[in-house]
Each structure stands twice: as structure tokens, then as C-alpha cells.
From TrEMBL:
UniProt-listed Pfam families: Beta-lactamase
Protein name: Serine hydrolase domain-containing protein
Beta-lactamase-related domain mapped to chain residues: 51-313
Molecular-function GO terms, alphabetical: hydrolase activity
Membrane-spanning residues: none
Origin organism lineage: Bacteria, Pseudomonadati, Pseudomonadota, Alphaproteobacteria, Rhodobacterales
Keyword terms: Hydrolase
Origin species: Halodurantibacterium flavum
EC number assigned by the record: 3.-.-.-
Amino acid sequence: MPSTTGLPTRRGFLAMTAAAASVAGRPLFAQTATGWGGAVDMARGFDQFHALVISHRGETVLAERVRGPALDRAVNVKSVSKTIVAAVLGAALDRGVAPGVDARLGDVAPSLIPSGADARVRDITLGDLCTMQAGLERTSGSNYGSWVSSRNWVANALSRPMVAAPGSRMLYSTGSVHVLGAALSVASGESLLAMTRDWIGRPLGIEVPAWTRDPQGYYLGGNEMALTPDAMIRFAEMYRRDGAGVLSNGWVRASLSRRTSSPFSGLDYGYGWFLGRSQGAQIALARGYGGQIIGFAPELELSFAITSDPTRPATSGGYFGDLMRLIDREIIPAARMA
């Protein structure tokens, strides 16, 4: 079926990767595409690394699996899911499900707020949740296990103590994005899975498998979604192409503007995207545990997807730092030279 967004079709991607894999046991692009082979060679040195796909000027120029699942398999993208939920928020706002990012939780989904929550919880905005600036104690890191073991994930996240004023600073917390997904479900009457499939997956021509749900049936916002590398590239290309008719131009521009910054990596953060520069080029990254990355550089017409072992950490001072050097030293320079 032809793509309505101008993105490459899934069938074309799979045919391309099958043909690439048939050449001397190594992908064709790693051998013949000027400049791209250096990225593959560097990536092979990372034992957590699984696959790399690069799109340049709207064409997939490299699709390399080093280890791990085949390129046509959906893989757990971990916290890249947060960026997908941010896209669902944009689509919801485009459809009038909520009046804007400044809409308060107490107005959009008051039924989610537990009776014992801090009074300020009502004033947390959808934008605060999306940028993880709710001000509530984090549910990620050492708190993640107890949070997902609780009987009510939304109530547990919203009952935590306020440790910062809402909207004041980033406190990386999957619970905040989970509450956002639940709030959008309440406001729209649709599950997060249905919204993701209908508003993002269908127009991009990608499949979104069902994933984890909490005890109340809300799909986990912010973790555990699965996508193929092809779907990851399509998602990146949607943003790179200013929404590609799937999201409004205004939402894309707002998403790529700084709202806060990460206390861990130092990168700026918009609505779902880490923002920075590489070799002078603006880049936007969706980042997931273990080294899952969707990224793009608008001025270079470049998009890329990286998958890695989802069971091992990838810190800014460790493997994620390695991937940033891969982007900075190989991928961005190759795009400039191509």
C-alpha cells in the first residue's frame, strides 16, 4: 500500500534489508554507502549494541543488525515510549481532547486523583506530566520496582510527596508519563493503545503491539512499548518532516523547544525529546533504557534508530555516552559528507 505520508513503505524496507543481508553475509549498505560504514564499524565494538538504521534525505541508506532480533521484529524500546506518549498528547490536543498543555489534571481527569494526594496535584498540568516536571517524588530508578508492584500505579504516583514545585524542574519519572497516558484515556474515552494505533500507527503505516497494563487496565505510559526499527525510523521522519500530516506543525515546533533539562545528561528536554547539538547540528533524541534511541537532525535531513540489549543499563557516562560519540563522530559527519 503506498504511503500517504511520503515515508518508505514497510514492504520496501523489508525487501531492502533482505537484499542487503544476502551480500557476503554482511549488509550491502555497510560496504558500499559512502561514509556510513564507519558507524557500523564503531558500533560493532559495543557488546550491548544490536542494530542501526539510518535514513538520509528520505531514503533508508543503512540497515545493519549486529546481534539481537531480526530487523523485522518489534523490540522493547523502553523509555522511548515516553516520546511516543508525547506524540499521542500532541495528537489529542490537535483533536480537542484537552484544551492545551496548560490544562490541569484536576480539570482533565479529576477521577484519577486519590483522596490523600497533596492539594497541588490538581494543578499539575498535562505539560508538567509530559516533561516530568510534576514535582512529585520519582517512580523511576530505585523507586520503580515498588511502584509497579503497587495495586494502583496512578494513585501511587499521585500520592507521593511533593519534592519540588510543579513545573519547576525535571524529575525523571515514568509515573508522570503513566499518569499522562491515563489522563488522556479518561478524557478521550479510548485506551492509550487505541490512541497510539489510531492517531500515530495507522497514518504512519506501522504496527503497535499491545504492551503492559496496570492493575486498573491503563496501558503503561512511558515504558515497555515495542517497535520495529522501521517503525522507529518512520516515527523520527514524522517529526523531522514537521509532523508529516500526522501531527500539527505547531506541536512539533513546541516539542522541539526547550522546556527543562535533564539533571543526568545535561541535555535540554522538550515534549518527549532530549535536545542538543552534534558537530554543530541540532539533534533530537528519544532515549530508552539499555541504549534504545530514535533520533533526527532536521537540517541534515537525517533520522536514525538504534536498538540495544534492553536488560543492561546505558548511563550517560557509560554505554549511552558511547552511543553519543557514535552519533557525533560517525553518523553526523557521514550525513554532512553524503
